[in-house]
Amino acid sequence: MDLTDEHAIRVMLDTYRSVEAYACQPGSKSFRKGAPTVSPYSRGNRAAKNGTGNLVVVDIDPRNGGAIARLFELFPGVKATRTAKTATASRGGVHLVYRLPDGFPVRTGIDLSPGIEIPRFYMLPMSQVNGHRYMLNEFPVAYCPTDLLAFIANDVSERAVPPVVRATGSHEGVQELLATYEQAPPGQRNKLFLETALPVLRALGPEKGALALEQYNPGIPDDEFKHKVNSALRKLESGDSYLPSREVSKYRDDALVDLLQAARAGRWEGRTGAVDRAVFLVLAWRAVVRNDFQVDFPPETIATETGFQPKTVRNALERLQNQGRTIRVFDGEARWHLVCSEFTRYLSKERETYLGEVFGDDSRGWLLPVWDEVWDCDGLTGRHCQIFDLVSLGAGSVTALSEQSGAGKSTVSEAVSALVESGLLVRDGRALRVVDDAVEVAEVLKRDRGGLEHRLRLSEAITRDHERLEKALDPEKNERRLLEEAAMLSE
Questions:
Q1: Segments in 216-272 forming alpha helices (H)
Q2: Is 227 a residue whose pLDDT tops 70?
Q3: Are residues 192 and 89 in the same domain?
Q4: What is the domain range of residue 110?
Q5: Distances (CA, A) of 253 to 56, 245, 256, 384
Q6: 409-448 pLDDT, tens per residue?
Q7: Are the CB atoms for 325 and 332 separated by under 8 Å?
Q8: Which of these, 159, 244, 360, 374, is most buried using a 10 Å CB contact count?
Q9: The model's pTM
């Protein structure tokens, strides 16, 4: 562009005409004293507040590991949407500029991946830093792709969640939780345990909290109760990532629920398809609870949630990455980004979800999710879980189940027979349906056919492995623990 062509420069800056702009020091990104507001058309260095003027900018900085190819992996909609961009003062760096729906609020100051962020502020064209002048190319500014829009949405409201009691020394609310938990009827005990355990353990501490849960046990059998408490204690150690987010973006919640439902109803082909499905759904459920497309979830924890061996989980996670369904955000860390590429077209204003298009509105909800111990019972697997799930969503014949699940008819027929024999499904004429008391049937099955025992053994084995690793990595800590135990015995 001819820098003496005032008309061309004004046309370029028209893109930013409604942003909030602030004066910066000459040759710098730093605000002038007092951060005075200025016109986007003014001369000198100016920074715009990201998200204003119905524009959002994505900053890619190769110095910190950012690459546009990585952004394409995280958000395939970006790859399919060519837009205006600005070369930044960082060598190879770029700002991608997108238009937002009118008044759409976005999160800023967040990382999408190492070296890729939604900055709070960005430099406007014609600014100059370190001898580099910011210039906008001539591509039109495209509307923000739906998958990226769902990630950065900030239409936040408070979500109603069970009362969460923090470890502040106050026991306010604990007695109310325990009283409700103690009165839980059969069929509601698992749900109320999940809502009660973490707040109580956090408020009273692990030992007193576990004792209180035992004292108010509404009738959960001992072996099952022990497994549930151990699981809750592991979650407590892992931090607040298990707690529902109180502040929720409705737009992102819609997108995540659609992603979850599409994965539930979708095809998962091949010998390992059912395992991949289970691991993905556990990740997706965590994402819905946390209201975020990126979740922290170590393979060992996923193993205790699904009943799979840790190696099986790691292999599934690798396959899911190869399929483009998930991406490890940071090398060496267990943070996973859920990709919603193939579901993006269902995240429209009308929200014609995939689930609704396939099955209509007749959904009984998620009666026995993939992490229920019933799928660890002898003779029941992840594929049985998928077939049960699809029947609960309205698929009533072997043909329909085969087409929808991605499994062959013989595999589906065997799974259906096993589910009927187990009492979870019933043949109603030519159609299949879920029995009315499926949750109660499952409670009996997982006690009588080894589901709870399998999960408990797996959890204990993973705990022992962690303890052995701790000893190997920190011999001094292990020696101190032995001395403390010896002192307690001598007393």
A1: 222-238, 250-265
A2: yes
A3: no
A4: 6-154
A5: 20, 11, 5, 28
A6: 999 999 999 999 999 999 988 899 999 999 889 989 988 9
A7: no
A8: 374
A9: 0.79
